Amino acid sequence: xxxxxxxxxxxxxxxxxxxxxxxxxxxxxxxxxxxxxxxxxxxxxxxxxxx
Length: 51
Known about the structure:
This protein is mainly alpha-helical and 51 residues long. Helices cover 76% and strands 0% of the residues.
């Protein structure tokens, strides 16, 4: 058995490119949730700032 180099292991596992669309999707979902619940978000920020 031979050990894989870092580049070979990354190519075999697909690299990190798949994380970008996942991160973008999470950011969009979080933004939409904040917009939908703006009053609660604003109240939570105010409580956090005051403490």
